[in-house]
From TrEMBL, chains A, B:
Protein name stated in the entry: Putative TetR-family regulatory protein
Gene3D superfamilies listed in its UniProt record: Homeodomain-like, Tetracycline Repressor, domain 2
Residues in coiled coil: none
Residue ranges flagged as DNA-binding region: 33-52
Amino acid sequence: MPKGPTKRRPETLARLLDAALDVFAERSFYGASIEEICDRAGYTRGAFYSNFTSKEELFLALFDRHSKQTLDDLTEALVRATNATDPGKALTEWASVRDPDERRWYLVSTEFSLYAARNPETAARLAEHEAQVRDRIVRILELLFEHIGAKPPVDLVMVARLATAIREGGILQSLVEPDELPVGELERQFLPLFVRAVTAGIR
Amino acid sequence: MPKGPTKRRPETLARLLDAALDVFAERSFYGASIEEICDRAGYTRGAFYSNFTSKEELFLALFDRHSKQTLDDLTEALVRATNATDPGKALTEWASVRDPDERRWYLVSTEFSLYAARNPETAARLAEHEAQVRDRIVRILELLFEHIGAKPPVDLVMVARLATAIREGGILQSLVEPDELPVGELERQFLPLFVRAVTAGIR
DNA sequence: TCCAACGAATACGTCTCCGTATCGGATACG
DNA sequence: CGTATCCGATACGGAGACGTATTCGTTGGA
């Protein structure tokens, strides 16, 4: 008695998640209705309730899917950094090079942070993910210092926090002023500069 | 025929705005009901509809009120910086010193950015405010360089953008992990370091 | 003191969305 | 080929929020 999804289920699930990303990006989480998500996916609410129990659950599932993707990307960047002459570059590239239509995701993920800020349980989940992300970044930074043969003058975890703060803050500005500040521009300009700052007075 | 508020109106308005900040922070913009805001303020919806035409308008009014406050704060920081020996300090302090229970506002303002990202009209309004904020910051930075007698090696407007990005990104992290990362901690640690980085190779 | 204008309360109809309970069709399997 | 299970569709009842139309009380001026 295989309890797992048989055939249609995974497809339905994926299409619901895709539609959810769309609608959440357009209308925000609370503004989105389950009905519109189902419509957009080509189903009725029946499909939704046989796959999820609530909008919250769908939201979490969406986060999980994307967070796996992000970690894979970053792990690959780590591998590349290991073999590269300039590990800092791998970090900068990861931060700045992105699919333009990821804008949808930026909207949703920022809102997910707000959602987490109001839900301790979700916050823990998000915090764990971000810790994993930071871990990759820290390892890249370690490679960087190893490469120039010096001891880090500051806590690398905080540096990683700073890197993601710059990234998230930059994204927020990009969302509001897409013309003045393209996504990734801030990182492109300042992450290298910052890496230099952190390594300054060492070499 | 004085059309302006006579007596009760300003009081009512202020209490509605206060309550709105509360409820928006708790339930998010779309999650908040007009009714709950009115209840919390001690009124019925009648009061609301005689002061606003929609929830959106209330949201904008809330933003305007706080944005005046922010600009005043920052202008004062600018004045202090003008007379101080270390202008960078004024900037860092402005960024890090905040009322702890401003957490409510951080939640709402971040959501306001998301709202603006979806509404070009609102985005323009927000962009203008942020431009004014940046203007103050740029002037502080100019003082900084004047003080050490050097020409800025990078575009100061971008540096100001970076400063607010660090601030906003840091706040976002603080909201999710209030224990690991108190509000303002990131700025406290890194803004000085960054100021040093920007001025490095000059003096 | 009276009255006009204003501001908040009340009452009503509507609409959207939600969740459940039930049904029908497809699919996997013997 | 038949059947049991799974999955999505349909149908229903209900709750909550919205916006308006109207009423009531208060305030400030004549």
